[in-house]
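The methods section describes the discrete structure representation at length, but only in general terms. An entry of this sort, consisting of the sequence and the corresponding backbone structure tokens, reads as follows:
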Amino acid sequence: MVPSRIRALAEVAVPALASGAVAGLVVAGLAAMVGQPVGWAAMSAVTLGLPIALLGGGYGLLVASGRVRLGVFAPAAVYWMIGFPLARLLHETWTPALLGGSPAPPADPWGFLAYQGLVSLGFAVGFVWLNERLAPRWLLRIKAHNPIAHQLFHTYAREAEQMQEAKQRRRTGAASRAGKGG
């Protein structure tokens, strides 16, 4: 792959990477809120935030390359059903080790992974929601110099137009039905 294409893809993946990084900050905040020491909270932000950010960037690359269609939740759900539990396993295992202890995997790793798989669906909803709010604004900023961003921005715009048209059709149909019933 040409370096300029790699750079363009990486630049397009920034919002998804940032959406993943936000998860690390949320984890740090929640850990501090429940009384974990500051070091634990900070290390949790790194040990979960970094893998989630990298996975988020990977998801952004899938969207940018057209392998995942915008506005469709199922691919995101499958992606995070695999990625989120693995990121949580890394977090759970390596946070104690990085704070001076030894690696501490969960006592029941399969049960842990299954539970995290269930939790991942909620995470996927939040991730997609945040990413689809950040990405169009970012793409608008970079589309002048990034052809992949230009194409993806117009894909977002078409998706938004189609959703607006469908909403208008529903309103028009509801109004005409209400007029006939009265």
